[in-house]
Amino acid sequence: MSESKTSPSYIELCAEIVSAYVSHNSVPAADLPVLLTSVHAALAKTAQGQHEEPKVELVPAVPVRKSITPDAIICLEDGKSFKSLKRHLRTTYDMTPEQYRAKWSLPADYPMVAPNYAKARSELAKTMGLGQQRRKGNAPVVAAANDAAKPKRAAAKKNAPSDEMTAPAKGRRTKKAA
């Protein structure tokens, strides 16, 4: 196609787009030529197939190797250091650890928690006995402890008479007798 055939169609399209925009938005008269020029240029680029945006190279705030220290993990997005990076990513950037790793081309085993912090939490969990299954020898001790914790009223209920009608204690009147 020659430019003489396509140019008027660009002008018509540009005029339609700008008039629709101006009818819904307030634009100063001095800005109209700039708006027309930018819309026309955008239409020309899309017609030529040059609508691809240049790829922006991601540059981390800190080199990946230096982002892991013994006491902190440094965020590649903003360079801030944290003991645990997961919450920061979720609240600030609305990212999951998997999305973060994919964005920065990090390996799947890239830590989200500082090594010393992970070690301290692991030791704390071990001292508390978390994650260990009950041993067969400990099960009766736990059952005996549960029996001792039951209220003593249960023993009184076993010796109590059944729900059948029984005679009231002496000196008391029943509702029927009144």
Task: Describe the protein in words.
With 178 residues, the chain is mostly helical. Among the domains are: 7-48; 57-132, Arc Repressor Mutant, subunit A (Orthogonal Bundle), CATH 1.10.10.1550. It is 49% helix and 2% strand. The chain is built from 7 helices and 2 strands; from the N terminus they run ααββααααα. A two-stranded antiparallel sheet has the order 1-2. Helix 1 (3-24) crosses helix 2.
Sequence-ordered SSE layout with sheet pairings:
Layout (H helix, E strand, L loop, with lengths): L2 H22 L7 H17 L24 E2 L6 E2 L3 H8 L3 H7 L11 H14 L9 H12 L3 H7 L19
Antiparallel strand pairs: 1-2
Helix pairs in contact: 1-2
**Into which percent range does the helicity of residues fall?**
40-55%
Largest sheet: 2 strands, antiparallel
- End-to-end distance, in Å? 114 Å
Give, in spatial order, the strands making up the sheet with the most strands: 1-2
Low-confidence stretches: 1-6
Give, in order, the helices and strands: HHEEHHHHH
Q: Using the CA coordinates, give the radius of gyration.
A: 38 Å
Percentage beta strand: under 5%
The count of DSSP E runs of length 2 or more, i.e. the number of strands, is: 2
Outline type:
flat
CATH class of the domain at 57-132: Mainly Alpha
Mean pLDDT: 79
| CATH homologous superfamily label of the domain at 57-132 | ROS/MUCR transcriptional regulator protein
What would CATH call the architecture of the domain at 57-132? Orthogonal Bundle
CATH fold-type name of the domain at 57-132: Arc Repressor Mutant, subunit A
Protein name: Transcriptional regulator
Region (Disordered): 130-178
GO molecular function: DNA binding; zinc ion binding
Biased composition (Low complexity): 138-148
